[in-house]
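Incident log entry.

Two folding requests arrived from the same account within the same minute. Monitoring flagged them as a possible duplicate submission, but the sequences differ. Recording both here for audit purposes.

Request one:
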Amino acid sequence: MNYAIAGLALVAAATLVNALLTRVVVQAWRATITAPAAAHPHPHEDPGTPRLAVEQGGHLPAFTLHAPDGDVTESALAGQPALIAFLRPNCGPSRESLADIQRWAEANTPAGARLVAVINGQEADAGPLLDAVVPLTGLTATEPPNGPVATAFGVRYHPSFVLLDADGTITETGIGLGSLPALDVVTV
């Protein structure tokens, strides 16, 4: 009889522990389900959407681009609108975006806007892309992949674009072919 009572006591204790653990798990699950969603800086974007480190409404990070016609810094772009294009030599979308970049440059640089082209890749591979971009702007430079300027802007995908107004405020950013509506608009 003592064994039966001990067995019943053991089953009762195990049932009580199981009920308490189940209650804790259910409470934690309910708290997770009913908690407000974590604030996402861009609520309309998928969290996996590629983004730059700079955002619309922000200002340029400090950078120095060593171009053949002299160094280009964020302060050198002050006073006029500018388009900064990050391109990669072995990237089809970068090459395809050249027509849009050229159309933007032809429409806007005569009015004082500046085009800056940063080619991220090995200089030996950049020849054809340099040949296409250099006639559009003297503010072109090649830097290694993940170079200092691309890093300052958070560029990981190509082509990437940053459009500025005259006071240096970022008005648009884009990643990928067709991602920057301003390239479809003739003037800034």
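Request two (distinct sequence, not a duplicate):
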Amino acid sequence: MVQYLECGKVANTHGIRGALLVNSWCDSPDILTRIKTLYLKKNGDFSPLKVESAVIYKRMLLIFFEGITSLDLALPLKGQVLYAKREDIPLSEGDHFIADLIGLSVIDIDTKRVYGTLKDVLYGGASDLYVVRMPDKREVLIPAVDEFVIKIDLLSGIYIKPIEGMFD
């Protein structure tokens, strides 16, 4: 399992004092307001950025980092992906990090047929959507709801109960 997880992306600067607007990739942007250190990835290494303050602002986060005190210092961060340590992001019982799900086999709970592997998770309106890559390279979307996703086992796969036509 990876130690650092993608948690957001710097969308823009805000003002002249070095503030950054960040799109949160967490279930709720509130999660990032409680993390004290975020990280940038450079050449495979993770550099810490100490958070001075973080508040929700227009469905985004407004973050001030220690040492980034001007627009000139903030501009190079625009477009950068931010990471958090796995242990700094709380998980509720039964929840999983997307990074841990990608690459898992998608398996029929009843027949044990392997349909493919989880390629991505898209954020839909009512629920997330699992993007399943089939052996023939097609991609199928499955709503990530209890009706279809029966069990997730990080060692063996994602067990589903498909409906007729789901994989046609």
